[in-house]
Amino acid sequence: MNKKFFMIALSGLFLAACGGEVATGDATDDTADEVVEVCTYAYDPAETVLTWTAFKLTERVGVDGTFDEINVTANDGASTLFEVLTGATFDIPVSSLNSQDEVRDPKIKNSFFGIMNETANITGVVSTLSENGGSVEITMNGISKTYDGEVKMDGEQVTFLTQIDLVDFDGQEAVDSLGVVCEAKHTGEDGVNKLWTEVDIAVKTTLVKECK
Predict the structure, then answer these.
(1) CB-side exposure of 187: number of CA atoms within 13 Å?
(2) How far apart are CA 148 and CA 196, in angstroms?
(3) Pairwise CA distance, residues 53 & 191, whole Å
(4) Confidence at residue 9, expressed as pLDDT on a 0 to 100 scale
(5) Residue 87 confidence (pLDDT)
(6) What distance in Å separates the CA atoms of residue 82 and residue 151, rounded to the nearest whole number?
(7) Can you give the chain as a three-state secondary structure string?
(8) Please, how many CA atoms are within 13 Å of residue 169, restricted to the half-sphere of its CB?
(9) pLDDT number for residue 13
(10) pLDDT along the chain (212 residues), means of 10
(11) pLDDT value of residue 18
């Protein structure tokens, strides 16, 4: 037998005996599926503060106050902060007004809100809301008015800032009425009794975030 042929045959026999087949099976993919976190948001009345700032005297001296009761119906369980508050309605009893002055509070309730129509409560709805701004419709003295405002974000905290004008609600009579009972406090060194009709509004709320 040809020596070269013999060596080739022997090599083939050796490979067959030792299982020299090339593996053809697919490799197993051990990469774990990525876990996606799903979060929802809800409104918390305990984390909501409304601050109003009115202005008196020619120099526009600010007087701050709040309302101790703010009733909000929001869209709990929404997937974003803005969805929770967009379309939310609110109802604010004027009896809960708090200007940190026990003498001034009854004057505002009786001589300002008290002479308005249908204003035992201030009501409204958050018309739009996004990181670029928002708008809110407010109803007072039987009149509804929409105002645009600025939105500030800090984690789950949302702050809405705007300025309203009481003239828009036919409120000049109420302003003048309050000016009479508060004449001593609203008259400056220039002798002018002045209560401005513009009021700054700031609403700050922190939403509850729950992730699964």
Answers:
(1) 9
(2) 20
(3) 23
(4) 42
(5) 97
(6) 11
(7) CCHHHHHHHHHHHHHHHCCCCCCCCCCCCCCCCCCCCCEEEECCHHHEEEEEEEEECCCCEEEEEEECCCEEECCCCECCHHHHHCCCEEEEEHHHEECCCCCHHHHHHHHHHHHCCCCCEEEEEEEEEECCEEEEEEEECCEEEEEEEEEEEECCEEEEEEEEEHHHHCCHHHHHHHHHHCHHHHECCCCCECECCEEEEEEEEECEEEEC
(8) 29
(9) 38
(10) 44 45 52 76 97 97 97 96 97 97 96 96 98 97 98 97 98 97 96 97 97 92
(11) 46
The per-residue b/e assignment along 181-200, b for 16 or more CB within 10 angstroms, e otherwise, is bbeebbbeeeeebbbbbebe
- Looking only at Cα atoms, what is the longest distance across the chain? 133
What six digits make up the tokens of 68?
Answer: 């101790």
List of domains in the chain? 38-211 (2.40.128.110)
Any idea how long the chain is? 212
